[in-house]
Amino acid sequence: MGRVDGKVALVTGAASGLGRADARLLAAEGARVFLSDVNEDQGRAAAKDIGTGATFIAHDVGDEAAWVRVMATIEDAAGGLDILVNNAGVVQLASPEDCTLADFQFANRVMSEGVFLGCKHGLRLLKKSAAASIVNMSSVASHIGYPVFFAYTAAKGAVRAMTKSIAVHCQASGYPVRCNSIHAGAIETPMVQFAQGRTDEAPQAIPESGILPPDALGTPSDVANMVLYLASDEARFVTGTEFVVDNGMLARAAS
């Protein structure tokens, strides 16, 4: 307990899935957490479920004016920001030939431009922190060709590259801000259920502990645990790095 005591965190896309799990764990470990999402009903329910120390803010991550407003709200309410988790994401089923320009632009607006805007406007507060951390949610899709998720793959590849540039920029500028990316494999979330055509099925029951077989899906807590580590001061010597949380998927693909 208390691994992020006294820190202020913002988690985007926190109404469900990975973002909700991230926000819950950060709050449990002592952070004051702001959850943001375009889904206001689910977002407010998530903040209420977490309880004390959790606040919901309606937020479209692709809207620059919204980022300015969110950062001003956090500064007014909490005085600063120590942790930024750029988690908001969408997925569309379309190959390079089937993907429309509108679909491509939408995916990149949320996951590429959204991460850029989060880092750009978040740094105004983060660089005033004693020790700050940006965690950008990428994907194993940035390492493997997934033509059926073409726009998603392109956006996550941009996140992977931006993360390293932001990390080096912060060091060169003397900012006390680390920046790392997480590359998760298939995690049992509403997004993965949609991608696998299981939206009408109940979520799979996955053990919260113990070793999983190669074909198993992970749980949101598997990713949240990595977010917590990177957000905490335990990771003070870690920046510009990509963390793969995929139960060996990339290793098997390379063999």
UniProtKB/TrEMBL annotation:
<dbReference type="InterPro" id="IPR057326">
    <property type="entry name" value="KR_dom"/>
</dbReference>
<feature type="domain" description="Ketoreductase">
    <location>
        <begin position="7"/>
        <end position="190"/>
    </location>
</feature>
<comment type="similarity">
    <text>Belongs to the short-chain dehydrogenases/reductases (SDR) family.</text>
</comment>
<dbReference type="GO" id="GO:0016491">
    <property type="term" value="F:oxidoreductase activity"/>
</dbReference>
<dbReference type="InterPro" id="IPR002347">
    <property type="entry name" value="SDR_fam"/>
</dbReference>
<dbReference type="InterPro" id="IPR036291">
    <property type="entry name" value="NAD(P)-bd_dom_sf"/>
</dbReference>
<dbReference type="InterPro" id="IPR051122">
    <property type="entry name" value="SDR_DHRS6-like"/>
</dbReference>
<dbReference type="InterPro" id="IPR020904">
    <property type="entry name" value="Sc_DH/Rdtase_CS"/>
</dbReference>
<keyword id="KW-0560">Oxidoreductase</keyword>
<dbReference type="Pfam" id="PF13561">
    <property type="entry name" value="adh_short_C2"/>
</dbReference>
<protein>
    <submittedName>
        <fullName>3(Or 17)beta-hydroxysteroid dehydrogenase</fullName>
    </submittedName>
</protein>
